[in-house]
Amino acid sequence: MPPSAPLIELRGLVKSFGKQAVLRGVDLDVLRGETVVILGASGGGKSVILKHCIGLLQPDAGEVRIDGYVIASPTVTDYAMIRRRMGMLFQGAALFDSMSAGENIKFAVREHDRHLSEAQLDNMMREKLALVNLRPDVATKMPSELSGGMKKRLGLARALALGPQVLLYDEPTTGLDPVTASVINKLILEMQQKLGMTGIVVTHDLDSAFQIANRIAFLYEGRIIFFGSPEEIRTVQDPRVREFVGG
Ligand SMILES: Nc1ncnc2c1ncn2[C@@H]1O[C@H](COP(=O)(O)OP(=O)(O)OP(=O)(O)O)[C@@H](O)[C@H]1O
Ligand SMILES: [Mg+2]
Fold it and tell me: Which of 22, 24, 51, 200 most suits a substitution to test ligand 1, by most atoms within 8 Å of the C-beta?
């Protein structure tokens, strides 16, 4: 792969649920090290796109390639490879409520690396907590004891557990106050700048999009109808995009 080749390629992704056509041919390229934000109306299929990227959904047609490998198509799956390389912060964080914060982080790694000792797992867990600026004593707390912003950070720490190259963020700032949201935005930028992470972020939050995106994609009626820089989206003439971004 030449270095300029996209790390993630979505090609002609089509997905229906029953009679409802959600994705009608989604094309998207994400370059190594960049953060792409996907904007679009609620219910438009943004979470469905992310779920295809980690192999939780298979397309009816089209494919997802990571580093040139087809990881999702109507016929192919390679979950082990995807799980290592892609971490996902789910919409609503999706923590295991019956496990402590620390266990939430260790869980996935225990499944993958059965030879790791408990001490090694604890070290890894503490390191991931530190990466998302959570104090070590958070490890023993239950998710119900954490604030919304802490839950998002814990979800991110868990997504980082297997040392992914790519982070997928589904509505990382939704439901947070502006100050906490900006803490999360800073963290997303740090992931990119300090860890060289490639990211796809789905959000409704335009401020957040403009702060973190290298490029912004706009999903409309099952297709990406705009893909360009934050500067470009501000000046785009297409009324379907303008209505969303305002101005
Ligand atoms: N597993 C599923 N089975 C059936 N329908 C689904 C499934 N997943 C998603 N859908 C439908 O696909 C459509 C798109 O859902 P999706 O969650 O991707 O929207 P979204 O753009 O993420 O919306 P929001 O911004 O509200 O999170 C919705 O109508 C949803 O009901
Ligand atoms: Mg969603």
Answer: 22
